[in-house]
Write a structure and sequence with these properties.
429 residues; alpha/beta; 5-stranded parallel β-sheet; 45% helix; 16% strand
């Protein structure tokens, strides 16, 4: 894991390389993804079944069906350990409570002249959730995607998750039951995105697709945007940490590795004002690496996508971190709330030494589906509004039309839209 000094001659080039961390070469898979999507669009279930057989190695038939039976979800839920069940319920309740505070409200504004303007907020009819998986367990992604849709009031939630050899992880099934999912399907990758975007004989077309995935899933979401809405185009996971001389090097190391173990392409970046902390944190990283179950993945990430930057002060640290705009940002400084006003761009901010990033992944409450690769400059975390839409309301009175209609007619005339002009003038005295 390299240590870089912000005052060095090579810093600009090395920092620019870090800024380019989020570039996924979608062009390399666009042709393949486009073919998959087109086959789903034209052939529906037949193409879907072919893709499942090819990529997940099982046949859709009477014994192994595409749709996941809700009785299997309940069975899985009933069979899990009570302590784990309590943890799932605690996570559910905290995530629900946080997202309930996000609910936007409809409103009306009544002017004295009888004009009424307003905004009606309503949920989409059907949401599609992509939950990565297979034999791996991602119940947290299930909760984080389903609960905002539930809070928003979405009537029908469709879940797609990959099932290598037709198998679904028991803990994911339990989380589905907890979220009262009734429509879940064993299909993953670009095929799942196409099925939810266009609809097949088995999987209905949705209005919005949310959820993380690999480069094929991200590319598919990008390509179907416009046919449906999407939450964001997310890449590999990442963490940024700002640390001062008071930070604990062991905490820093483990938090950096918490993202590195996700993916070889994950990024872990520490910015610190202390050269002593920089060297100690680096030493702790390599000390902890050998003890990880996923040490090969974490090592590749740390070596190729990890960096420690030494800066002259916290002001410079904030400037650089705002340029990075990380998915997760930890403020491991003596007074994190003093630093908060200087942070403009991050998916989620974790304040202080006892707020590690994993607490946000599972149980704190805010959503863990976050913008990556610097897109926190313009994307927000997944939330209730991703499952809702706004409609404007306009009501004109006779008096109101007399007051503002002449200006409207003039603007229409200026744009050369004759029917627009006459439509307004026909209502004027």
């Amino acid at each position: 894991m390299k240590i870089i000094d912000s005052q060095s001659k090579a810093f600009k080039n090395e920092f620019n390389a870090l800024l380019g961390r989020g570039k996924m070469d979608m062009q390399s898979v666009e042709a393949t993804v486009g073919l998959i999507l087109n086959e789903i669009k034209i052939d529906g279930n037949r193409a879907l079944n072919d893709h499942i057989k090819k990529f997940d190695k099982w046949d859709v038939n009477e014994d192994n069906q595409l749709q996941i039976d809700t009785t299997l979800m309940k069975k899985a839920y009933d069979s899990i350990d009570s302590t784990l069940k309590d943890a799932l319920h605690l996570a559910y309740d905290r995530i629900y409570a946080f997202h309930q505070k996000q609910l936007p409200k409809s409103w009306m504004d009544f002017e004295d002249n009888g004009i009424v303007l307003g905004q009606k907020v309503s949920a989409v009819d059907r949401a599609g959730l992509y939950i990565p998986g297979g034999k791996a367990a991602y119940p947290s992604s299930m909760l984080m995607n389903a609960i905002p849709a539930i809070v928003a009031g979405v009537k029908e939630i469709i879940v797609c998750t990959p099932a290598p050899n037709g198998e679904i992880n028991e803990l994911l099934l339990a989380a589905m039951h907890l979220c009262k999912i009734e429509h879940a399907y064993k299909v993953g990758g670009a095929s799942a995105i196409g099925a939810m975007a266009y609809g097949t004989e088995s999987i209905p077309k949705v209005d919005v697709i949310t959820g993380p995935g690999n480069i094929f899933v991200a590319t598919a979401k990008k390509m179907v945007f416009g046919e449906v809405n999407i939450d964001m185009i997310a890449g590999p996971s990442e963490i940024g940490i700002i640390a001062d001389k008071f930070a604990d090097p062991k905490f820093l190391a483990l938090d950096l590795l918490s993202q590195a173990e996700h993916d070889e392409m994950a990024s872990s970046i520490l910015i610190t004002t202390s050269s002593k902390i920089a060297n100690s944190a680096r030493e702790e990283v390599y000390k902890a690496l050998g003890k990880l179950d996923r040490k090969e993945i974490a090592t590749a990430s740390i070596e190729h996508r990890g960096a420690i930057i030494i800066v002259k002060d916290l002001e410079e640290a904030c400037v650089l971190m705002n340029e990075i705009a990380p998915e997760h940002l930890e403020l491991m400084v003596e007074n994190p709330f003093d630093l908060l006003p200087r942070i403009k761009h991050a998916g989620a901010i974790f304040m202080g030494s006892y707020t590690p990033e994993p607490i946000g992944d599972y149980i704190a409450g805010p959503n863990h589906t976050l913008p990556t690769g610097g897109t926190a400059k313009f994307y927000s975390p997944l939330g209730v509004e991703n499952f809702m839409k706004k409609t404007s309301i306009i009501s004109m009175s006779r008096q109101g039309m007399d007051e503002i209609g002449h200006a409207c007619a003039l603007l229409a005339k200026t744009e050369g839209l004759d029917a627009h002009q006459k439509s307004v003038e026909s209502r004027l005295d």
